Amino acid sequence: MNSFTAIFLAALALSYAVELWLARRQSAYVRAHRHTVPEAFASSFTLEAHQKAADYTLAKGRLGDIARTIGVLVLLAFTLGGGIDVIVEFWSAFDLSATLKGTGVIITTLLLMHLLELPITIYQTFFIEERYGFNRTTPRRFIIDLGLQLVLMLVIGVPLVATLLWVMESAGTNWWLLAWAMLMGFSILMSWAFPTFIAPLFNKFTPLQDETLKARIQALLERCGFHSKGIFVMDGSRRSGHGNAYFTGLGNNKRIVFFDTLVNSLSHSELEAVLAHELGHFKRKHVMKMLAASALISLIGLALLGWLSEQDWFYIGLGVTTRSNAAALLLFLLIAPVFTVFLRPITAYFQRKHEFEADDFAALYAKPSELISALVKLYRDNASTLTPDPLYSAFHYSHPPAATRIANLSAKTHAAVP
Question: How many domains does the chain have?
Answer without folding.
Answer: 1
